[in-house]
Amino acid sequence: MRRSRDVPALVAAAREGDPRAVARLISLVESGDETLPAIAAALTPHTGQAQVIGMTGSPGVGKSTTTNELVRAYRQAGRRVGVLAVDPSSPFSGGAILGDRVRMQDHATDPGVYIRSMSSRGHLGGLAAATPQAVRVLEGAGCDIVLVETVGVGQAEVEVASLADTTVVLLAPGMGDAIQAAKAGILEIADIFVVNKADRDGADATYRDIQGMIALGERGPGDWRPQVVRAVAVRPEGIDDIVRAIEKHQTWLTDHGELTKRREARAAAEVEAIALGALRDRMGSLRNGTALPALAAKVAAGELDPYAAAADLLAGLDR
Ligand SMILES: Nc1nc2c(ncn2[C@@H]2O[C@H](COP(=O)(O)OP(=O)(O)O)[C@@H](O)[C@H]2O)c(=O)[nH]1
Ligand SMILES: [Mg+2]
């Protein structure tokens, strides 16, 4: 199983809930294996029903602790849960992810929970391409809820967070997080803010900061107004409030036709990432072939302008 590339057998086993098959499929997805198209094709009939929840925020704010408690809450409600801890910035699964594993140990023996960490290691389309495939694996394995934890607050996280139906942004007091979030464009993607570590000084100020920023945002009638929830994930406190806010957002999504819109936007980004990855591959083989050196020689000799050369090169992709 650990080395298998037998996609139909792996998918069948994952559908039966075999955690080793799920792990193997996600590894294949993560490494951008050549079986990816076959995996996607085999999984597609079994996908589309899971609720995807993005959890993002600066390192240390309490994403993994909160995710762990959300898993507990959803398990108590009888849902099957998948967790992807994604690190877009690091090529390795380093310390942060190790910490995640420890904080999510509680569910290690629960057959209704799959927890996986992913890095961008080796994947050509980057995590923008790999994450939705991994979500598909978890959906195929019968997860009703998929929680995607991303490390940090930056462009890569915005990208990954935008893969979710509902994006939860965690803040903590005294980290200047509210302001950083505004700068990084996180305000636009957050459906729910969690002011975690509400046991610490400054939580009220952070709460007010974020409410103030939300009040400044432009919204039309019927638009979603981001919810702000206080939590102390280590106790745990406020977890039910987070679950309720997520439910409220899900209801809003379906009532306003937004769920379809978001999923179509997600599919567009995914297809684009895959197509660009394929293009880059073919550009790479052009570079190693004879076309580019021949064109480059002409450009350098002043026989051809670089735009005409680039057009020639692109035309070569179709051949
Ligand atoms: N005081 C306090 N500490 C917390 C709270 N939530 C998490 N922590 C601690 O903050 C640290 C980082 O938590 P973690 O969940 O790994 O954060 P992540 O990097 O965002 O995933 C850990 O030591 C947690 O125990 C909280 O509500 N209050
Ligand atoms: Mg974490």
3D structure, described in words:
The protein has 14 helices and 7 strands. The longest helix has 31 residues, at 258-288. Strands 3-2-4-1-5-6-7 form a 7-stranded parallel β-sheet, with helices on both faces. It has 319 residues and is of the alpha/beta class. The chain has helices spanning 7-15, 19-30, 36-43, 63-76, 95-103, 126-140, 155-161, 177-183, 186-189, 203-216, 239-255, 258-288, 291-300, 306-317; strands spanning 51-56, 81-87, 113-119, 145-150, 166-171, 192-195, 227-230. Helix 10 links the parallel strand 6 and strand 7 (227-230). The structure holds guanosine-5'-diphosphate and magnesium ion. Magnesium ion binds at residues 63-64, 96, 99-100, 149.
Short description:
This protein has 319 residues and is of the alpha/beta class.
